[in-house]
Amino acid sequence: NPPRMVEVFPTQADVMAAAADRFVNAASRAITARGRFAVALSGGSTPEALYRLLAADPHRGRVDWARAQVFWGDERCVPPDDPGSNYRMAREALLDRVPIPTAGIHRIRGEDAPEAAAQAYESILREQLGPRDGPPLPTAGLDLVLLGLGPDGHTASLFPGSESLQERLRWALAVEGPTPPRRRVTLTPPVFQAAGDLLFLVTGSEKNSALRRALHDSTGGLSLPTRVIRLPNTAVHWLADSGAAAGLPVGGAESA
Ligand code: 6PG
């Protein structure tokens, strides 16, 4: 099994610089191997600094954006110009600033009825990545998935203990979270499990206890989204700053 490494950096800026390098490398590896780079972006506030880095030199010129297919791990059910829209944030910080064709941007339609938006998003994913029926295939899946961690332990819009953690067939689901904006659309565990690499970015001391639980709580088991979304052979990398990682055994592998 690939080791699940936790890398700890002094500051949030260091985390973002390391994440930008990983993003660039994942893109070139995927494009060399398959002629395209399929990436799912994360929402919330953490990744904005990463998106701004990727949109600026020197990273901007290091990604062949013409071959990128951009998806989202989750979306809040708000219009695409709403301050809470994950699509809006990624567009303003990154996608408007790099030469990506419109055909490479696959947003979740937060303005539509959640269930319809989830179904439409699943169709797009199946069309772009295949197969049209059945579970996602690791060989055709997302090359890179960016993820965050909520203080309550949620990732994407998979919340601890929620029913969506048991989903095995659907690729996208309409769900409700505990805090506003409550209605969301999220990718499901099988899609994350088939991904080439899950890259978690976790910064700030308010994430400290959630990070400890995600990495080292052997009792949380299948109620923890961060556990459920990977299989033993899924590649997972955690990048954390010193605030989020305070008190963690550093440099080590995540416990099983
Ligand atoms: C979202 C996310 C979510 C996020 C975490 C962390 O849309 O809310 O995709 O999973 O990554 O909630 O959010 P912050 O980065 O804002 O702490």
Helix count from the secondary structure assignment: 8
Shape designation? globular
Mean pLDDT: 93
* Rg computed from alpha carbons, rounded to a whole number of angstroms: 17 Å
* Ligand list: 6-phosphogluconic acid
Q: How would you sum up the major sheet?
A: 6 strands, parallel
SSE pattern: EHEHEEHHEEEHEHHEH
Question: What class, by secondary structure content?
Answer: alpha/beta
Assembly type: single chain
Amount of helix: 25-40%
Question: Kindly, what is the distance between the CA atoms of the first and last residues, rounded to a whole number of angstroms?
Answer: 11 Å
Poorly predicted regions = none
How are the strands ordered across the major sheet? 1-9-8-5-2-3
What amount of the residues lies in strands?
15-25%
Number of strands: 9
Write the layout of secondary structure elements.
Layout: E1 5-9, H1 12-34, E2 37-41, H2 48-54, E3 68-72, E4 74-76, H3 86-93, H4 114-129, E5 144-147, E6 172-176, E7 183-187, H5 189-193, E8 198-202, H6 208-216, H7 225-228, E9 236-241, H8 242-245
Parallel strand pairs: 1-9, 2-3, 2-5, 5-8, 8-9
Antiparallel strand pairs: 4-7, 6-7
Helix pairs in contact: 1-2
Bound molecules: 6-phosphogluconic acid.
